Amino acid sequence: MEYTTLGATGTRVSQLCFGTWRFGRETGGVVETDREEAHELLDTAYEHGINFIDTANVYGTPNGTSEAYIGDWLESYHREDVVLASKVYFPFDGRGEPGPNDQGLGRKHIRAQIEGTLDRLGTDYLDIYYIHRWDESTPIEETLATLNDLVREGTVHYLGASTMASWQLTKALWKSDVGDYARFDVTQPLFHAGYRDDVKAYLDVCADQDIAVCPYSPLAGGFLTGKYERVDADDPTKFEGPEGSRGTLSDRFEDFYLSERGWHVLEEIRAVAEELDATPAQVALRWLMEQPDITCVPIVGARTPEQLEENVGAVDLSLSDAQFNRIVDARYAEDGERWGHRE
User: Which of 49, 217, 234, 332 has fewest C-beta within 10 Å?
Assistant: First the structure.
C-alpha cells in the first residue's frame, strides 16, 4: 500500500479508503453485512495497508450500528494506526421518532451526535468529521462555529464536507476565512469516470484550495466493475446483471449510473483493463487515484474480502497518459458533444 498526504493536512492515508455504509444495514429484512463479516472485512483492509475508514452516524439498522461494529473491532488495534471519519446531518433513529432538533447542522444536534459517535466508536476523537449534507435551515456560521469548537477541543482533527454544490463549498470556505474558523480540508462528492464533468466546478474549487477529494461510489454502484451488459442499443437503461446485484434491486442505479456516457466509458475501461491484465474495477479506481490536480482517495465498499482485495490491486497499477485520456475522451461523441447522463 502507498500513502498520500490528505490535501493540506498533515495526515497521511492509504490511497484507498474503506467505506462501511453496508455494515448492519437491513435490506428486505436481511442484514447486508453482519458484525462478523464486518470485522473480517476490516481485518482484510488493515492487513492490506488501508488505514482510512469511513462511516456515518446513520449507517446501519438501527442507525449507529456501523459505528458500533467499528468500535468493537478497534478494541483489538491501536487507535493511532487508524484514520477514522464519520458524519452528521440526517435524523438519527437510535432513540425513536426524531424530535425537532434531531437533524441538521445546528449546534444542539451536532453536539449530541458527536457524543454518540465517539461512544460507539470507542474513541475520544475523530480524525475527520463531515457534514453529510448542506443545511438550508441553519446559518453556515453557526455550523462552522460549532465545528470549530470541536477542533479546538481536540474532539475532531479535520473537517469534511459531503455532497454539496460548488457555490456552497465556496461560501463555507469564505465564511471560515472571514470568521477565523477551521476550514473544510476534505470533501466527499459523487465522482467516478463516467460522471466527471457533472462535478467539474466543485473539483476546481478543491484543486484551487488544496482540498482532498474522497469520492463515494467510485465504481458507479458496481456498474464500472464490468459485471453488467447492455441489451438494447437504443436504451442505455436496459441491461443484464447478476441476480441480486444492486443494479437489479435499486431504481437509484438507473437514475445515477446508466447512460450513454457510462456505457462508452465502461467500454474504454474494459479495453484498458485488458491491456494491463487488470480488472475494470481496478482501472476505474486507478483513474481516480491519478487525477492530476487533486489528492483523490476513492472510498471503496465491498461485500467480501475477495472483492476488497481486488480493489486494493488498483494500487499496483499505473495508467499511461494515453490510457488515462482515452477514458476521459470516452465521455464525448465524435462531434465533441458529451454523451448524455441522467441527472
Answer: 234
